[in-house]
Amino acid sequence: QGVLVPGLGTFAVVHEQVNITEEMYVVRRPVFQLDMDMSCLQELVFPTVMIPGDITIMPLDYWWLSQTNSLPPDVVRGCVEETILLYSFQLRDGQRPAFVFENIGILSCQDNVLCMQFHCSCITGLESRDTWVALLLT
């Protein structure tokens, strides 16, 4: 399943087959598909990530988020929307701040390349059997 963060992109977990020497591994790893206003991304390069069509994409659950911080869902939605808007304005203005997602990773820009770097703990939490393969792929 994937989660769409409106105005920013989609987080998902994909299964990927990997052949290493004579062994085949199937690992679960996180991916992020950027979906921002292209005017924000002038002069920036970002990796093209395609989420397979068989993965169900759900909208961000503002009600669930509101339960984790005791704020009303409409306040949470407003905070998320304003944060993404601020981030896109900063990118458009030539600033390159890092966007940190707790327990997931960091969306950062280095040398005009905007990419998602997942925390090792996020990757190992998804793939316990072939962790080192998933870490290498991600």
UniProtKB/TrEMBL annotation:
Coiled coil: none annotated. Pfam families: HU-CCDC81_euk_2. Residues 57-128 form the CCDC81 HU domain. One of its GO terms (cellular component) is microtubule organizing center. This is CCD81 protein. It comes from Malurus elegans. The gene is Ccdc81_0.
